[in-house]
Amino acid sequence: GQNIDQPTEMTATEGAIVQINCTYQTSGFNGLFWYQQHAGEAPTFLSYNVLDGLEEKGRFSSFLSRSKGYSYLLLKELQMKDSASYLCAVVRNNRLAFGKGNQVVVIP
Amino acid sequence: GAVVSQHPSRVICKSGTSVKIECRSLDFQATTMFWYRQFPKQSLMLMATSNEGSKATYEQGVEKDKFLINHASLTLSTLTVTSAHPEDSSFYICSARVQEGAADEQYFGPGTRLTVT
């Protein structure tokens, strides 16, 4: 397999901050995507990291450390609509391999 | 932003028939298109990678004669599920990849839910 690991589920309160981690095998790595997927829908692109560091886009930020094979997605000021599965996907050899996703449940 | 469409969004067919799913990039030309399958509560599984004008590259375990992929242009790829069986019932999703300089983005279509009876 692709050995992309993500925790399975977390619950957080509206307005809070959550961090979703993703670890992966570093061999052949050529970029990492984060996607949001609501139940029954296709994934929506959130971010792309290919270099080390933090990328910020509004309430969402994504961090990458290539040497550690580690990335995280930070969701700030959580809203109810953020309840979804968050998928990290690693690019290798022009193909995208997905982790199983982390289900985030936002409660009032 | 980039928009990818899929048609149909839902389809129900009888066992043994064939179903064609279209994937279009509406406002951009895609370097590559991908086809995925997702079973309930599972991750997306890549089925094949499709480049315009060339044969698709299938993942291990995916039957190329059963899942026919045609990539006629930079904006259209089709997946045909031939002789469908109930175990082929799944959520099929395409995506289109755009690579420009350092940017590398992949946009997904809305998916097609196939039910084989």
Highlighted features:
heterodimer; A: 108 residues; 10 strands; 0% helix; B: 117 residues; seven-stranded mixed beta sheet; 56% strand
Structure, explained:
The complex is a heterodimer of chains A (108) and B (117). In chain A, 0% of the residues lie in helices and 57% in strands. Chain A is globular and about 40 Å long. Chain A is an all-beta fold and 108 residues long. Chain A is built from no helices and 10 strands. In chain A, the strands form 2 sheets. In chain A, strands 1, 3, 4, 8, 9 and 10 form a 6-stranded mixed β-sheet that branches. In chain A, strands 2-7-6-5 form a 4-stranded antiparallel β-sheet, with no helix packed on it. Chain B is mostly beta strands and 117 residues long. Helix content of chain B is 0%, strand content 56%. Chain B is built from no helices and 11 strands. In chain B, strands 2, 4, 5, 6, 9, 10 and 11 form a 7-stranded mixed β-sheet that branches. In chain B, strands 1-3-8-7 form a 4-stranded antiparallel β-sheet, with no helix packed on it. Chain B starts with a strand and ends with a strand. The model of chain B has no long low-confidence stretch (mean pLDDT 90). At the A-B interface, strand 3, strand 4, strand 8 and strand 9 of A face strand 5, strand 9 and strand 10 of B.
